[in-house]
Amino acid sequence: MTEIVPLTQLPATRSKTLDLIGNTPLVLLAGPSEAAGCEIYGKCEFANPGASVKDRAALYIVRDAEQRGALKPGGTIVEGTAGNTGIGMALVANALGYKTVIVMPDNQSTEKMDTLRALGAELVLVPPTKFADPCHFVHTSRRLAEETQGAVWANQFDNTANRKAHIETTAPEIWEQLEGRVDGFTCAAGTGGTIAGVGMALKERDENIRIALTDPHGAALYSYYATGELKSEGSSVAEGIGQGRITANLEGAPIDTQFRISDEVGLEWVARLLREEGLCLGLSSGINVAGAVALGRELVAEGRRDARVATILCDTGFRYLSSLYNAEWLKGKGLPVFDWLKA
Question: Of 160, 192, 142, 147, which is closest to residue 65 (Cα–Cα)?
Fold first, then answer.
């Protein structure tokens, strides 16, 4: 796997383009820190070449398939995704000489679809449906991989090379960037690779670090970690997060506590981070920041006023111009419209 070079030792140039994945900046977020009463940091995953945290998993999944001998020169990578993993996969595949077939629900953002086509991926759109349905995008991608000569199925949800990417890269970066003083980490779960991988690796360094799941409405993991029962309530328009089962990546995740965040609260932070701090982010990032504020407040209430909490700024808001940053779309979903978008 990719060797992690300490940030302070990174050269100004890289020897190959795939070395641009990871080693993203960690930024202190002023508004969330003030709201929590302690330091809230965001890992700037939109700084990856594919503009999302999913570049890390894509690279590790492809390298793992190569090392196992499953992916041969000129082969094809097939994946089911909400979009960002597909974008990361297409970029990694292009750099290594592979083809990509990406299966995606047709209710995801237009920008993701256009980006995948622009990157040269073959895009297969399917109707959104429950995981139990054989037409679900994950099952469709598996069948296409089985039917395509020289293809491998990335299987990001249950391929633990995904989680390994965060054990070996994301968590060590956060630890180093905060000089070994981390009190809490939180993010939402899609595949579960980020929350589980970062949580496991941080706990290895300090078992007292509090790991919190931040779940959107409509997902079942909040209930699972709170009560032991997979049960969903409500719904969310957030793309790429929210899970209704325990994936292989989530197995053994060291979740200490959990928060459920509404789209409205997540959008409030999306708006504030753009208006006050100049960060244009997607809704998953807003939900993560809301969870970080909740975790920070919890730590402060215990007397830990010098606490440091880190979270993931998952992707760029430029990927959602037709949805989150579109007044008519927001109105159609019954969501508040950002002040500057109002006519």
Answer: 160
Where along the chain do its domains lie? Answer: 17-51+169-325, 53-153
Q: Per-residue pLDDT averaged across 141-159, rounded?
A: 96
**Which segment of 5-14, 44-53, 80-89 scores lowest on mean pLDDT?**
5-14
The structure tokens 């968590």 sit at 171
DSSP 337: P
3-state DSSP of 249-282: CCCCCCCCEEEEECHHHHHHHHHHHHHHHCCCEC
Domain 53-153 - what CATH class? alpha beta
Instruction: Please tell me the CATH code under which domain 17-51+169-325 is placed.
Output: 3.40.50.1100
Measured between alpha carbons, how far is 342 from 101 in angstroms, rounded to an integer? 39
Q: Which two tokens stand for residue 173?
A: 């970066």
- At position 172, the amino acid (one-letter code) is P
Does 32 have pLDDT greater than 60? yes
Q: How confident is the model over 117-143, as a mean pLDDT?
A: 94
Band of pLDDT at residue 5, cut at 50, 70 and 90:
very low
Active site residues: 54
Q: Helix 54-67 vs helix 84-96: angle between axes, to the nearest 10 degrees?
A: 50
Q: Are strands 257-261 and 26-28 parallel, antiparallel or unpaired?
A: unpaired
Interval 267-319: pLDDT, tens? 999 999 999 999 999 999 999 999 999 999 999 999 999 999 999 999 999 99
Residue with tokens 């995948």: 116
